[in-house]
Design a protein that fits this description.
It is a single chain. The chain has 222 residues and is of the alpha+beta class. The chain has a single domain, classed as Dihydrodipicolinate Reductase, domain 2, CATH 3.30.360. Helix content is 31%, strand content 27%. Strands 8-7-6-5-1-4-3-2-9 form a 9-stranded mixed sheet. Helix 4 crosses helix 6. The protein is globular and about 55 Å long.
Length: 222
């Protein structure tokens, strides 16, 4: 998701510091009735988790990327399974084995960072929401705020609230293709990894914290 055109454009815009200190963000990847049907997604012994591991990981990484990857220090969360075993809940991708699903179908977490900032993460396969799928990041800074994927900027100038939208030339290259292109260039030219391993590790540390917090019922250190 970092390499989608809208992500690249917003990241470039944020590099100018126009939002000021980004002290809070909200990352959402919510699906209404899109639960994967294969056992590799729904058996914790195989997958390691549910929507946190499947889709939450992507929106979390992108939000942290926009925030310049602050160091996480603690997490409090819930990762329940609320709808996945109900016979009256139908999946738009087909049926899954309700006797074998052992992962969460929803998660919400609050992550604190060493710099004093925070981030809320929401992800779900089965959520009673209006949209079939909702992917959204809200960034709140001391000078302005921003929303992805709308690429809207919200601030104030001369005592009046301002709202604008970033415009840029469209590129038909998809995010996955662009990711492969950038990675290949790094391999061939000896450049550092486009996504540092330390950042990927912090994503997994946070997701691990979500599960541990749900199990203990309290905030846990990352």
């Amino acid at each position: 998701m970092r390499f989608e055109q809208k992500s690249l454009k917003l990241k470039q815009f944020l590099a100018g510091g126009v939002l000021g200190d980004i002290y809070y963000a909200r990352a959402q990847f919510l699906r209404r009735r899109y639960l994967p049907t294969r056992i590799g997604f729904i058996d914790r012994n195989i997958s390691g988790g549910g929507p946190c591991i499947d889709i939450g990981v992507h929106i979390l990484d992108l939000a942290l990327h926009f925030m310049d990857y602050p160091e996480p220090v603690s997490v409090t969360a819930i990762t329940p399974q609320k709808l996945a075993k109900r016979k009256d809940i139908l999946g738009w991708w087909g049926e899954w084995d309700r006797d074998k699903i052992t992962v969460e179908d929803f998660a919400a977490g609050f992550i604190r960072f060493k710099n004093g900032g925070a981030l809320t993460l929401e992800c779900s396969w089965l959520a009673n929401i209006k949209e079939p799928e909702l992917t959204k990041i809200t960034l709140i800074g001391t000078q302005a705020g921003a929303e992805w994927p709308e690429l809207t900027i919200h601030g104030e100038r001369n005592g009046s609230a301002t709202d604008s939208q970033l415009k840029f030339p469209q590129d038909n290259t998809g995010g996955h293709a662009k990711e492969i292109e950038v990675f290949t260039d790094a391999v061939l030219t000896g450049k550092p990894s486009p996504v540092p391993a330390e950042q990927s590790l912090n994503v997994i540390r946070i997701l691990d914290g979500l599960y541990r917090s749900n199990k203990t019922g309290r905030e846990v250190k990352v």
